[in-house]
Amino acid sequence: MTTQIETKFCAAIIDAFQANKRLAERAIAQVSDESLHVPLDEYTNSIAVNMKHIAGNLISRWTQFLTSDGEKPTRNRDSEFVDTFNTRQEVLDYWEEGWSCLFAELNALTARELHSSVVIRGETQDIPLAMSRSLGHTCYHIGQIVQLARHHAGDNWTTLTIPPGGSEQFNQENWGPSGKSHS
To answer: What mean pLDDT comes out for the span 18-22?
Structure first.
């Protein structure tokens, strides 16, 4: 027997992935084509490399999510950290390929399947744990993308969230003078 909790959990995970994808894409849109390929230093990855790694990870983890190990034998993780892209469109196309794998599998999951397990790198994990780990890993690298984009955009940066010092104005615009939600 399943409850609404499983359905709500899946919806929340999908929503969090979608929100973070949008966040990354809004940051990436503020960066020149050239800057996509520029790391901050020899110890960091460029935006393009972070996008390639996220996409490669999502493709491996979410292709045949329920029926095969999440670390596919065809994945070459080390190559994900080498920038092989020539254009912004190539980066974005691969990025979309990874996200398409993720959303296809997440949207196909049933509440009953959430009580199953999957295997990732030979380790059996409950599906909610595997979903949460994937979300955490993806968000970690999206944070890197946003910080790199912020650096590369410089003075042309448009904040992605409430700007510093803008909380009171945001609250008043959204919830009125009391600053509290009307829900």
So the answer is: 98
